[in-house]
């Protein structure tokens, strides 16, 4: 009996459907469906009954649910004790990140790190994209993930590696007058507020110069997306926020302007080279988990 199958079973029972559980865990629905079927075959009885698009626990499923939760708790306890023998120091890691990737993405990362690396004492810090490299260089962070505005030069105390490129897209709310135009020129844009990203030096990033003076500068990409969706203006939104949270971005339209797309590198910063193939240290293992989650989210 695989612990992973029990974990999937408990999550499906809590969420009431394969689709909802897959979204919560960041896994494919087929993966969860096959795991549940394999567990039912092994136990020799059905664990769920279908009710339209939802699943309800069978009588046997109700009977074993608490026991499965106890087994999962015991597995976590065993893993923690093995990872933290008496007298050994706990590994402490501090991760930095901007908000190009969604809160739900980092929630999955934290859960997976705590599940697979219980011996790691973890902290996570949100900061501006431009601040994170220096925080790593100073030793305040062990590793950081961020989009880069300008090249940052590596040195003896900072390593960097491009993981992917992030597409910034020029968006407006569907009900905004700009979204109704077939093609936009600079004059069309100048009549509305541009929403920009405010960095730690109080500089406005992703601002189209010479196109109006009215701007709304915000220090979070998610705030920018939400302000655009609220009809307060137009601006650039990182594509991961659009594809990873489709429901929150459903009322946004890509503007048909010659500068509606720009690409920026998304990097990892550390004080030692990071290679996803190397997993000999806790930091490298954490990096591998984050890369794997990015891959599953379709970001890489």
UniProtKB/TrEMBL annotation:
<dbReference type="InterPro" id="IPR000847">
    <property type="entry name" value="LysR_HTH_N"/>
</dbReference>
<dbReference type="Pfam" id="PF03466">
    <property type="entry name" value="LysR_substrate"/>
</dbReference>
<dbReference type="InterPro" id="IPR005119">
    <property type="entry name" value="LysR_subst-bd"/>
</dbReference>
<keyword id="KW-0805">Transcription regulation</keyword>
<dbReference type="InterPro" id="IPR036390">
    <property type="entry name" value="WH_DNA-bd_sf"/>
</dbReference>
<dbReference type="GO" id="GO:0003700">
    <property type="term" value="F:DNA-binding transcription factor activity"/>
</dbReference>
<dbReference type="InterPro" id="IPR036388">
    <property type="entry name" value="WH-like_DNA-bd_sf"/>
</dbReference>
<comment type="similarity">
    <text>Belongs to the LysR transcriptional regulatory family.</text>
</comment>
<keyword id="KW-0238">DNA-binding</keyword>
<dbReference type="GO" id="GO:0000976">
    <property type="term" value="F:transcription cis-regulatory region binding"/>
</dbReference>
<feature type="domain" description="HTH lysR-type">
    <location>
        <begin position="1"/>
        <end position="58"/>
    </location>
</feature>
<dbReference type="Pfam" id="PF00126">
    <property type="entry name" value="HTH_1"/>
</dbReference>
<keyword id="KW-0804">Transcription</keyword>
<protein>
    <submittedName>
        <fullName>DNA-binding transcriptional LysR family regulator</fullName>
    </submittedName>
</protein>
């Amino acid at each position: 009996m695989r612990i992973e199958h029990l974990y999937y079973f408990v999550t499906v029972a809590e969420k009431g459907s394969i689709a909802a559980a897959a979204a919560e865990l960041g896994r494919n629905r087929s993966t969860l469906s096959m795991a549940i079927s394999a567990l039912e075959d092994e136990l020799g009885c059905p664990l769920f009954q279908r009710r339209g698009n939802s699943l309800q626990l069978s009588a046997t499923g109700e009977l074993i649910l608490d026991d499965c939760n106890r087994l999962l708790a015991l597995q976590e306890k065993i893993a923690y004790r093995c990872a933290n023998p008496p007298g050994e120091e706990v590994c402490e890691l501090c991760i930095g990140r901007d908000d190009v990737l969604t809160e739900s993405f980092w929630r999955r990362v934290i859960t997976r790190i705590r599940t697979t690396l219980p011996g790691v004492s973890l902290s996570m810090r949100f900061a501006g994209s431009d601040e994170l490299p220096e925080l790593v260089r100073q030793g305040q962070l062990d590793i950081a993930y961020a989009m880069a505005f300008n090249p940052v030069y590596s040195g003896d105390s900072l390593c960097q590696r491009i993981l992917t490129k992030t597409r910034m897209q020029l968006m407006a709310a569907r009900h905004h007058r700009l979204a109704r135009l077939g093609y936009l020129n600079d004059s069309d844009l100048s009549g509305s507020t541009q929403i920009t990203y405010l960095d730690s030096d109080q500089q406005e990033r992703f601002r189209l110069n010479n196109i109006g003076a009215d701007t709304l500068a915000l220090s979070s990409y998610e705030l920018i997306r939400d302000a655009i969706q609220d009809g307060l203006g137009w601006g650039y939104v990182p594509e991961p926020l659009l594809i990873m949270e489709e429901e929150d971005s459903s009322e946004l339209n890509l503007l048909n302007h010659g500068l509606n797309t720009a690409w920026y590198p998304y990097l990892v910063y550390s004080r030692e080279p990071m290679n996803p193939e190397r997993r000999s240290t806790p930091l490298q293992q954490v990096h591998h988990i984050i890369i794997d989650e990015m891959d599953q989210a379709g970001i890489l």
